[in-house]
């Protein structure tokens, strides 16, 4: 079976394929449906990109000192020398570019021959620009992040027409300790990149980066780690196993981590179901199933509490905030705690974490941290943060007009919501 992540099958004429997919792209823009000859990964990406203007180029989020400060604290800065060592030849051969982006698709580094870089600038393929699918449509780094898999995007498979002269291959990179998505590594060039070697190269580079990141972390036998930020279902790593928990087990585990001293069944029931929906039999059954998942050596009862050393991303973030490390805390924040959960205890903890992080970032008045906060799902609609960012940016900074426009948009939206609320009939 052909590799679905490769753009061209062996023996396919690239020029013919460009024409076929180009016609399919035009048909999609006209009718909103892609013919079957388009790869599934591309068709689904086009559907996610359908609201974009196919002639637009991605916006630049960060520039100058703000970009430099953001890059300096990003985890992938530690493996930039590795990227240059493995892909440096490609980046300087006059035909390719090497690019590294963060988990939001924001380009951190773009390197290559000056002539190729000048061509890439015409489509805003520059450091600080947003190349996630939401802002740039179908492209290798953005789509690799969206599907969490290495992928090639070939010529007319790109959603944006200005990008269709390029071909690229990208692979996502994860934090080896938590599994959190850190960003992606990409190579961009001409049609000749549509071969198995370019995809294998970015895959190998991503794995080498994860290995180097892991080598820089202390080995702690017997330590269990939990990832629960920015995801609806927590992931548990124990004894070399990766276990994805269901929603209810994720909530229970987070609540137990938040209360290392232990919780009674009644307390857990209140945290999980609320005052009017206590179900002790159901709760005991859920805890019994969770014990089978974790193993009896990790979950104690009377009171219910976790044994051994269990570390979680949200407790690490809280520890960094306690130490006054707002940059480190924000760098460890991919999104809210179990955002899909409505369990009262989890909801309270989620608001507490987001509130503390927001306050710490606002207190710094650092434009790089404020820009990073407003790029998160939680901070995207934070009017006060956008106002603080506008104040922190010097007049003439590329980011400032975008911040002012967002302030105006949010102020109008909030005013409309308030007016709508006041017009509601009162009983």
Describe this structure in words.
InterPro entries: GAF, GAF-like_dom_sf. By secondary structure, the protein is an alpha+beta fold. A 5-stranded antiparallel beta sheet has the order 2-1-5-4-3, with helices on both faces. The chain has a domain at 14-215: GAF domain (Beta-Lactamase, 2-Layer Sandwich), CATH 3.30.450. The chain contains 17 helices and 11 strands. The model has no long low-confidence stretch (mean pLDDT 88).
Question: Could you describe the largest sheet, including whether it forms a barrel?
Answer: 5 strands, antiparallel
What general outline do the C-alpha atoms trace? globular
SS field, number of helical segments: 17
User: Numbering strands along the chain, what is their spatial order in the largest sheet?
Assistant: 2-1-5-4-3
Please report the first level of CATH classification, the CATH class of one domain. Answer: Alpha Beta
What is the average per-residue confidence, as pLDDT, rounded to a whole number? Answer: 88
Calculate the terminal CA-CA distance, rounded to whole Å.
64 Å
Relative helix content: 40-55%
Protein name: GAF domain-containing protein
Organism: Micromonospora zamorensis
What's the SSE blueprint?
Blueprint: H1 14-31, H2 40-48, H3 64-73, H4 80-91, E1 97-102, E2 107-112, H5 114-121, H6 133-136, H7 140-147, E3 151-154, E4 167-174, E5 181-189, H8 196-215, E6 223-227, E7 235-238, E8 241-244, H9 247-258, H10 265-273, H11 280-294, E9 299-300, E10 305-306, E11 309-312, H12 313-322, H13 326-331, H14 344-364, H15 367-374, H16 383-392, H17 399-422
Parallel strand pairs: 6-11
Antiparallel strand pairs: 1-2, 1-5, 3-4, 4-5, 6-7, 7-8, 9-10
Helix pairs in contact: 3-15, 9-11, 12-14, 15-16, 16-17
């Amino acid at each position: 079976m052909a590799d679905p992540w490769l753009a061209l099958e062996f023996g396919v004429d690239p020029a013919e394929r460009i024409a076929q997919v180009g016609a399919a792209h035009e048909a999609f823009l006209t009718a909103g449906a892609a013919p079957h000859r388009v790869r599934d990964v591309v068709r689904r990406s086009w559907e996610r990109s359908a609201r974009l203007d196919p002639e637009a180029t991605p916006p630049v989020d960060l520039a100058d000192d703000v970009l430099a400060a953001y890059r300096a604290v990003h985890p992938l800065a530690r493996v930039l020398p590795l990227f240059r060592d493995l892909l440096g030849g490609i980046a300087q051969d006059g035909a390719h570019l090497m690019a590294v982006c963060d988990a939001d698709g924001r380009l951190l580094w773009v390197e290559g021959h000056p002539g190729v870089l000048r061509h890439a600038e015409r489509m805003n393929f520059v450091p600080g620009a947003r190349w996630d699918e939401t802002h740039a449509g179908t492209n290798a780094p953005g789509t690799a992040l969206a599907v969490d898999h290495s992928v090639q995007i070939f010529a007319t498979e790109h959603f944006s027409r200005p990008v269709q002269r390029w071909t690229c291959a990208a692979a996502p990179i994860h934090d080896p300790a938590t599994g959190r998505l850190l960003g992606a590594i990409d190579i961009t060039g001409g049609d000749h990149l549509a071969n198995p070697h370019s995809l294998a190269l970015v895959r190998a580079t991503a794995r080498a980066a994860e290995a180097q990141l892991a080598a820089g972390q202390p080995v702690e036998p017997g330590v269990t780690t939990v990832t629960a930020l920015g995801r609806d279902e927590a992931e548990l790593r124990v004894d070399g196993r990766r276990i994805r928990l269901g929603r209810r087990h994720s909530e229970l585990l987070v609540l137990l981590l938040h209360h290392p001293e232990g919780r009674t069944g009644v307390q857990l029931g209140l945290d999980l179901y609320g005052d009017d929906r206590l179900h002790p039999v159901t709760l005991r059954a859920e805890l019994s199933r969770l014990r089978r998942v974790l193993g009896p050596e990790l979950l104690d009862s009377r009171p219910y509490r976790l044994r051994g050393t269990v570390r979680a991303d949200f407790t690490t973030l809280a520890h960094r905030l306690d130490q006054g490390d707002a940059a480190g805390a924000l760098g460890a924040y991919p999104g809210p705690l179990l955002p899909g959960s409505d369990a009262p205890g989890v909801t309270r903890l989620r608001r507490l974490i987001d509130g503390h992080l927001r306050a710490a970032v606002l207190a710094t008045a650092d434009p790089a941290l404020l820009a990073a906060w407003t790029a998160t799902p939680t901070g995207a609609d934070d009017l006060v943060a956008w106002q603080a960012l506008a104040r922190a940016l010097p007049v003439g900074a590329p980011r400032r007009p975008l911040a002012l426009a967002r302030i105006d948009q949010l102020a109008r939206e909030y005013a409309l919501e308030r007016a709508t609320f006041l017009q509601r009939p009162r009983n």
